[in-house]
Amino acid sequence: MRPEDQIYNFYRIELKQVADTIGKGKVAIFVGINAIGKTYLARQVLSERFRNEFLENQKTYFVSVDLKDKVGLSTNQVLSHWLSQTKKALGLKDELKEVNNFSFYSEMTELIKKLNPNEKMSFVVLDFQNTFGCDESFFQSLIYLSIYSYGKVSYIILSEPQILESKNLGVIRFLEKFENLRKFNFMRAFDAKTMKADIAVQGKLLGMDFKKYRTMLVKHSHGYHGISRTSCHLIKENPKLTDIRKLSKVFAENSSCQFWVKEILDSIPRESARILKEAVGNKTNFQKYPKNIYGKFLIDLTFLKKDGTFRYPLLTPFIKNYSPQDLTSPEVRRIKNSFFVGNDKMKLTKKEFMALDLLYKNKGKPVSSDSLGESIWKDNPDEFSLWAIAQIIRRLRKKLAFYFINPQRIKSVRNEGYVLN
């Protein structure tokens, strides 16, 4: 089997989901660390093979919004690129002119209106995290384009982990609208067959046969495209790196590798980075975190196995030496009649607010279910039940997680109620 065919087959699960998303006019968000394979997946989605196999009876215009390595873009630059790529996909001439949020939305709306009843448009956005410097209006435009296209528009978004804790209110609203409090699809590490195919692809790109290194690369890359790709480049420079000890030493001392791994670690949530440093080298330290949302992120992002084992030993020296500037967890603050996390105002229902308010006033002390019930349903005591209290607490925990706070900050205290730590 050709290497390209093996890579395509590996992504069949994701491609099936993409096809369903396009058919329904929805949004699919794939999250993965740098060099996990997001570019590979984007290529498969944009391929003729995917169209022929999964979208046989659908006329879909694919708009490739490739933002890879485009860091620090302004809102107008993103708008201009997005609109230009849309016109290119439709076979239209792109007139060079200044684009703002209003003109972007107006032009995009007109282009979508001109689609035939059986036609759809799908935006494939690679490295979506590079839009996080855009203003809120940009993300609101994306929301409106989806809503008012009535199923014609879909978004296939591929992002690095910054999306897990973006502070941009526009991004947060976009996720609230489409992802039901951040239900993401996490990128998978390659299996052994796909790893071999990846190494063959690297060989073609670098003009070198890596056959005699293949067993070592497959074994020690552990399915991570970034490690195999980087190792192939190092071996290209020094073909004497025939065993893992030599390769590990060069890997750890290479300044480009150091910069690359730091970028990866900077992209994940701060609390996840702290847990990772604690777990690397001693997996028993992870036993208290597997149900913690930040611990789950480390499993989902392929850093750790479920038992806390670190998947990528070649990266161990970098993680042990990693010193992020700030590993403190965000805090909930009450300002007047609202709760904030950082500068972000929490979106709470009236009952959620009343429950959190009582817990906040008694921080560190258990609050009984009866006290919560009397506070929330003082005018309608017949509506109070332990089940209703539990549902409010469940929703509050989900919202804490949305704002990057450990949901277990609200703990259940047996026979006493709940406590906010």
TrEMBL record:
Entries under InterPro entries matching the protein: OmpR/PhoB-type_DNA-bd, P-loop_NTPase, Sig_transdc_resp-reg_C-effctor, WH-like_DNA-bd_sf
Binding region for DNA: 319-421
Highest taxon listed in the record's lineage: Bacteria
Keyword Ligase attributed: no
OmpR/PhoB-type domain residues: 319-421
Molecular functions per Gene Ontology: DNA binding
Keywords: DNA-binding
The keyword Mitochondrion is annotated on this UniProt entry: no
Stored SUPFAM superfamilies: C-terminal effector domain of the bipartite response regulators
GO biological process, one term: regulation of DNA-templated transcription
Name the UniProt record assigns to this protein: OmpR/PhoB-type domain-containing protein
Organism, scientific name: Candidatus Woesebacteria bacterium RIFCSPHIGHO2_12_FULL_41_24
Organism phylogeny: Bacteria, Candidatus Woeseibacteriota
